Amino acid sequence: MLALVRGISDAWQAVTMNRIGEAERHRHQAEECRAKAELMADEETRALYFRLAEAYEALADNQEEVEHNRQSFGDLASKMVNSGSGVGS
Question: What pTM was estimated for this model as a whole?
Answer without folding.
Answer: 0.64
